[in-house]
Specification:
- This protein has 179 residues and is α+β, with helices and mostly antiparallel strands.
- It is built from 5 helices and 5 strands, in the order ααααβββαββ.
- Strands 1, 2, 3, 4 and 5 form a 5-stranded antiparallel sheet that branches.
């Protein structure tokens, strides 16, 4: 037996290491595979439910317009914000001060109106750290006004601060906007 162990020592060690690796892989990968399988099964069941729904819902144009009018009225109750140029400037300056961002070269233009909405183009350069700039842009997107951020261009200064050029539009319904 002693000769057997000394002769096949490297083979036995290789088999032991292989079994150890397989057991460790099974210990860590099986729970992960089980959770992935559960998520996959849940997704498949949701797809089956969506396929069982009628593919074409028949709705008249009048009832669709009526539903849209009711939904639009409910949304308007939540958006009682009146939009004007000075309100936009005040909101931008307050948000910048709160987030620790310095606004440089802030400019707004007169609202561009069409039949349904008024769009106030705004552009500015902001200076600050990455996190404050990120929080500032997130506040703008989630703030009281309906804002569409069209571009954000960032460059880094030698001292580590960021300078970003932001272009956005503040949108309002034609009846809500005051010039």
């Amino acid at each position: 037996m002693k000769n057997f162990i000394s002769r096949y020592r490297f083979c036995l060690q290789s088999v032991a290491v292989f079994l150890l690796v397989v057991l460790l892989a099974a210990f860590f990968l099986f729970p992960w595979a089980r959770s992935v399988g559960t998520d996959f099964a849940t997704t498949l069941s949701e797809l089956k439910v969506s396929r069982s729904m009628p593919s074409e819902v028949k709705m008249s144009a009048d009832s669709l317009a009526k539903s849209y009018a009711a939904l639009s009225a409910r949304i308007d109750q939540f958006s009682e914000v009146k939009v004007n140029s000075s309100g936009i400037l005040k909101m931008l300056l307050d948000a910048a001060r709160r987030e620790g961002v310095v606004l440089v070269d802030l400019s707004t233009r007169d609202g561009v109106a069409d039949d349904l909405r008024v769009e106030y183009p705004v552009s500015f350069n902001a200076r600050g750290g990455f996190v404050p700039l990120l929080k500032f842009v997130a506040f703008l997107e989630n703030g009281p006004f309906c804002i569409h951020v069209s571009s954000v261009k960032m460059t880094r200064e030698d001292n580590g601060n960021l300078v970003s050029h932001v272009e956005l539009s503040v949108l309002a319904k034609t009846g809500e906007a005051r010039q």
